[in-house]
Specification:
The chain has one domain. Helices cover about 25% and strands about 30% of the residues. The chain is built from four helices and nine strands. The two termini are about 20 Å apart.
Length: about 130
């Protein structure tokens, strides 16, 4: 049985302090490069997503790369990809969507993960999104 915050075959978005993370950790910039090169470890924690939202062009690049490589990840040997954020995750007032709150500013997680983000914890501290 997978640990909380670590379901294989989906993106796991977790509030860092509340979930165990993997020893193999990469900043989000390196994650994009590893994803492009098909060189991701089978268990990885991606960090610094919250700071990436201050760079809209990078967020667009991240989203496009994740979309383009989604099929490859789905057919891989069940990788566990965890985004550990040092920010609060809140349900948006736009319905069944979630925002990452950084220094009082909400950033829509749909900009990176699309609209299929689902809460796995009642307090929204752990979300998942399909590859």
């Amino acid at each position: 049985m997978p640990k909380r915050g670590q379901i294989p075959g989906v993106y796991n978005i977790v509030e860092r302090e509340q979930y165990e993370t993997f020893p193999t950790q990469f900043p989000v910039d390196a994650f994009v490069e590893l994803l492009e090169d098909d060189d991701l470890p089978t268990q990885v924690t991606v960090v610094n997503l919250e700071s990436a939202f201050t760079r809209p062009d990078f967020i667009t690049e991240l989203r496009r790369t994740m979309d383009r490589k989604g099929d490859d990840l789905e057919h891989a040997d069940s990788p566990i990809i965890q985004f550990a954020v040092e920010a609060d995750i809140h349900r948006s007032d736009r319905g069944n969507e979630y925002d990452l709150w950084v220094d009082g500013t909400p950033y829509p997680l749909r900009d990176v993960f699309g609209r299929q983000v689902e809460a796995q914890a009642d307090d929204h501290s752990w979300l998942t999104s399909p590859f």
